[in-house]
Specification:
It contains eleven helices and nine strands. The chain is α/β, with parallel strands linked by helices and about 300 residues long. The protein has a nine-stranded mixed sheet, sandwiched between helices. The longest helix is centred in the middle third of the chain and has 19 residues.
């Protein structure tokens, strides 16, 4: 249960990124969509950002069609195993293709935002949670940051710079109901943060294997009441009304995910108490035996996206 040393890299506190791929390219394919790679975007107050964008089949033929957009963290681990950290990927494009073929969702554009290497933790740790932390919880977070926590700037960049850029450059549907955000581990926390903070932008979210301990579990304990209170105040109490929004949360029970069940149970109860209906406005699943890694997330991604992105 306490395989933290093995799983530490999986939630990316100091994960190294793969070697840089070739120069920016647009890779044409006949029936599985098209990729656009943007290798460097300067962002004020943030590490340089990088994108892998997937345009669904038909995008270049159906010129009158506009598409909903799914923004995903850890973009280097989404599509191409040669770009991934751990030789594992979510296969996000394949999940969407399968769901499209089954008629479960509309075609979507996927914008994969690469994690900035060793800066990943400080970019994904929700700033309100960090500000609220004290004592051993704050010390555990500080031990991981390696610099200023910049998730507030990252969220503002995504919402106010990146999204307008994508909307200008591609044929998108721009409303919140057509804009989703998803991520795992620290990216799950970041997705939850974006969902409650910028509900004007993100109307759907998938928070996958969210790292509710927020730092090294060995330093905060199996279940930390102070952390539970932080998530209540910075996430649950900020949810607002559903109003057609959709929230997915899930956890496994092996490796690093073994720490998550008591936090997730507390959060589920809070979301229900806030008036969100399980199975309608939000979903929370437990995948028994599932570890904290990309293959496990890929296995359940069709179910996740089939629920989050359905009309």
């Amino acid at each position: 249960m306490r395989a933290f040393g093995i799983a530490l890299a999986a939630f990316g506190l100091s994960a190294c990124q793969a070697a840089a791929p070739p120069p920016p390219a647009m890779i044409e394919t006949a029936d599985v969509g098209r990729f656009v790679e943007i290798e460097r975007i300067a962002a004020d107050g943030l590490p340089d950002q990088r994108l892998s964008i997937w345009l669904p089949p038909g995008y270049d033929r159906n010129m009158g069609t506009r598409y909903p957009v799914l923004y995903m963290h850890d973009g280097h681990n989404l599509f191409d195993v040669t770009k991934s950290n751990f030789n594992k990927i979510w296969a996000a494009d394949k999940a969407v293709l399968a769901l499209m073929a089954q008629g479960k969702i509309r075609p979507h554009i996927i914008v994969g935002i690469w994690a900035p290497g060793s800066d990943r933790y400080r970019q994904y740790l929700p700033r309100p949670a960090y500000n609220a932390a004290t004592g051993e919880v704050r010390a555990a977070m500080d031990a991981m940051t390696g610099g200023e926590v910049v998730s507030d700037r990252y969220l503002a960049w995504m919402a106010d710079t990146l999204k307008p850029m994508i909307d200008a450059d591609y044929r998108t549907l721009t409303g919140a109901k057509d804009t989703a955000i998803a991520g795992s581990s620290m990216g799950g926390l970041m997705s939850c943060y974006a969902f409650v903070t910028r509900l004007d932008v993100f109307g759907r979210a998938a928070c996958v294997s969210s790292h509710w301990p927020a730092a090294d579990p060995a330093k905060v304990g199996d279940f930390n009441q102070d952390l539970a209170a932080i998530w209540q105040s910075t996430f649950v109490e900020q949810l607002g009304n559903p109003d057609g929004r959709r929230l997915w949360m899930d956890i496994g029970t092996a490796t690093l995910d073994a720490y998550y069940p008591p936090y997730q149970a507390r959060i589920d109860a809070g979301v229900t108490a806030a008036g969100w209906r399980r199975g309608v406005d939000f979903e929370s699943k437990v995948y028994d035996g599932a570890p904290h890694e990309e293959n496990a997330w890929a296995a359940r991604l069709p179910e996740i996206l089939g629920w989050v992105l359905t009309d």
